[in-house]
Predict the 3D structure of the following.
Amino acid sequence: MRRANRLSARRKSATAAPALVQRDWQLPVYRDDPIEPVSHEGVEAVHNAAMRVLEEIGIEFLHEDALAVLKREGCKVEGENVKMGRDFVMEKLKSAPETFTITPANPDRALTIGGRHFVYGNVSSPPNATDIDRGRRMGNREDFQNFLKLTHYFNCIHFAGGYPVEPVDLHFSTRHLDALYDKLTLTDKVIHTYSLGTVLVEDAIEMVRISCGVSDEEFDEKPRFYTNINSSSPLKHDWPMLDGAMRLAGRNQPVIVTPFTLAGAMAPITMAGAVTQQTAEALAAIALLQCVRPGAPVVMGAYTSNVDMKTGAPAFGTPEAVRAMQLSGQMARFYKLPLRAQNSCAGNFPDGQAIAETMNSLWAAMTSGTNVVYHGAGWLEGGLAASYEKFVIDCELIQQMMAYNDGIGVTDEDLAVDAIAEVGPTGHFFGAEHTQSRYSTEFYQPFLSDIRNFETWDEAGAPKQYEHANRLWKQILGEFEPPKMDEGARAELVEFVERRKREGGAPTNF
Amino acid sequence: MRRANRLSARRKSATAAPALVQRDWQLPVYRDDPIEPVSHEGVEAVHNAAMRVLEEIGIEFLHEDALAVLKREGCKVEGENVKMGRDFVMEKLKSAPETFTITPANPDRALTIGGRHFVYGNVSSPPNATDIDRGRRMGNREDFQNFLKLTHYFNCIHFAGGYPVEPVDLHFSTRHLDALYDKLTLTDKVIHTYSLGTVLVEDAIEMVRISCGVSDEEFDEKPRFYTNINSSSPLKHDWPMLDGAMRLAGRNQPVIVTPFTLAGAMAPITMAGAVTQQTAEALAAIALLQCVRPGAPVVMGAYTSNVDMKTGAPAFGTPEAVRAMQLSGQMARFYKLPLRAQNSCAGNFPDGQAIAETMNSLWAAMTSGTNVVYHGAGWLEGGLAASYEKFVIDCELIQQMMAYNDGIGVTDEDLAVDAIAEVGPTGHFFGAEHTQSRYSTEFYQPFLSDIRNFETWDEAGAPKQYEHANRLWKQILGEFEPPKMDEGARAELVEFVERRKREGGAPTNF
């Protein structure tokens, strides 16, 4: 079936125009300084508060190896509670790199993480898939593969995060094998593994190693993929997350530590309080990982948003969340750590509400100096659904953010005094040579915007943005061509998956 | 009918909950420094280019009085072309105030314009009205009044700009009399007059004077209302605009000068070139107005956006437009002038596209330090339609921008270490006293967001944002109560309108 699909895509691409013209693959670098909502004293205050949480209240580490490491390093360990002094934390942070690269099998897809670099990933981990034709349903492998294809297709999506939708039709014990196989063959971009059990993580490491065609020793030489762990806020790191994080750090692979600090629920209702707790929880795990392997690449994650206080439901893309992200950016720079944020929204449908929330999230990432934008494309419903239409819309909006980041030139040619003189007070610039020579390149060309006038648009059936997006994702999937990959590596991957399936996969009782 | 409406509104408000809970009236002040896309040298380069346009190319002033004034001041006048030296321009700018107030009849509605203040106005000048029930049609007085009622209702809308929709059913010669009467009675916020003819402008001045209950002399003591003029780009100021601007400046009333510099059409295709031309056109008129009355309150308008180069249609809310606005902000601060921008979009329907464009426009205003945000609520279709639903949506988004601008506190109470200690690693913050005491005030409460979970939302018919907005504007209009006003002033206004109608109103052949 895969072969037939490929043939059909080829046939289409020979006869039809491509679904859309997009920006080239690019690793963008922030042109502007971030917005800093609090003063240097304010940053110090958050830092001191976070240090008090670590020193006086402590964080629970539900993993015996983590407790042993931290005890050996001189932390105060009482049961699962660990109190760490600020001197220890700040000392450990010294070995965490400000910037690092992740190099997958295809070195053209290597990412730089940190500094003024920023990258976007696809939506991660929704249980449901949705589109406007079929509505919302539990995710399955076909949806999972489709979202990976969209992830691979769009140049503005730099990495494949967690499962873009949960492939619920795959048995859990072997799901990771099929899912990782799909991720490593349907896209050549940097991928992620969940930290949800030792076997799963070790299988992921092995499969990425195979895809890269390197030995164990070569694998450890540089970051190849990554994991993301969430603290179980408040103040707790669970066993599977710690286990996976320590395994990846031990192999020199990056770990993003993202506390799940919804203000008013798992964290204080005040944004500064939630960011304080977020900072403490993130630094606690980061300090541990620097003990496990000094220099291990890490990212500070920021997920702080507020809940709707009428219902307790998480809200996203709120004014408070934008500020929390900007403050998180200040904290990340204070600690010289890369920062993760996300493109999230609460809306249930890709309408004005969801898009406004998304725009706030994207502007929050842009103005906070976020390095890794998780859930960049496809997120809907507070993360409970991956939306095909939203994926396409988000890529349009991300491209716009990247075009914005291109900045504005002020050379003599840009200032165009000669063109103004040439056209004069009665003319029009369409015909000017200055215009004609820049005609097709000066502006970002949105692929999704309907710029027809009202009458033409109305006669065409008054299509909404999500209807245009609906047409586009179908075209893209129809055109899809998987990335080239080493056939030896592919065969080895197939063999590995088959063997591990025969062995039963991963235990499901973690 | 007006009376019946009022009674019905009262009856409703006695029995039903209000349509929505909104933020209080507030004159916000920017908390953050603006984003500055070009260096100080870049600003100097744009300045020098604008000065070269003024010195070497010149601006056409299609008004004999303007030409006479500028000739007397030493400018080089050839026919309608005026070349002004940079020394002259910079000297004249010295008398333009950095900040001023506009005080309408109700002093509680006084606005501060300039510095770090910012205010939002309603949509201005679309020929069409639209809502999702009745679709798009030519504007009429009922729509005009309805949009004024929405303007008055929403505290986040600080002023009433041009006609929120053109009341086409009113005869042009007397339209301004009815329209100004409606503006002065359906809202007590600062209003605008068009500069579309001497009689119209003089009638407007007189009606505002009557509404304020002041003598001619008292009227001139301070700004009471304002006008906005557009240059006829490239490089031209038309007679009616100049006439109205000079009349208002002569009476100490503010003039916003907004070049209509769409890059690639009426201005160079490069954003820096378009802003150069915009700057030259705006400064030319501002210098004139400072000659007419030194110290006359003026605002530099920035409308620069790009066109879609495939169709020539204006595009709004583009990445380039955001940068143009930020550069315009840099120029306005360089000249120590207040800045006007707008909340514009190209979309034909309040769907994701229009809202994304709107969000870019609002973030552009926020990050450029814009002082006056024109077309804040209700703009659709590149300004060709005023949308009832978009008006409500925009007010939600503007409230969010204002909530964002509230910033983030970092007091010990905000940092909440005690609350974190109290809740500990197994608790939940809902029940904490720190949460409970801030429960209803800590977060901005959106009035338009549907935060129900998918199932509940779906069972409720899966309403879109614009459907919620549709319900709200009807409730608001049903509840509407006009502002209190001095009955003597009202009677005098009625008498003035009737007299001027008997006299025939304004000539229509300007």
In short: Residues 271-292 of chain B form the longest helix (22 residues).
